[in-house]
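Something for you to look into today, if you have time. Could you write out one complete protein record for me, on any chain you like? The space below this message is yours for that.
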Amino acid sequence: RFYLCNVVDLKVRTEGGDVYYEVSMADAWVWDMYRPSRFVKSAKILTFRDVSIEEIVHPDFDEVPST
């Protein structure tokens, strides 16, 4: 699965000597071939696998572009 979101919060958790990640997202788009709807208000993932979070650089707009 792949996720795109506007808000993300990553927490590293430990329990019984194991490390896992809790990822909370808001305003998200989910790519999963079995999912009928791609857009969700929020999603929470618990995983023992690696997690990569990347912020896409975007320019700041001083004014609204004309159409």
User: Anything to note?
Assistant: The mean pLDDT is 85.
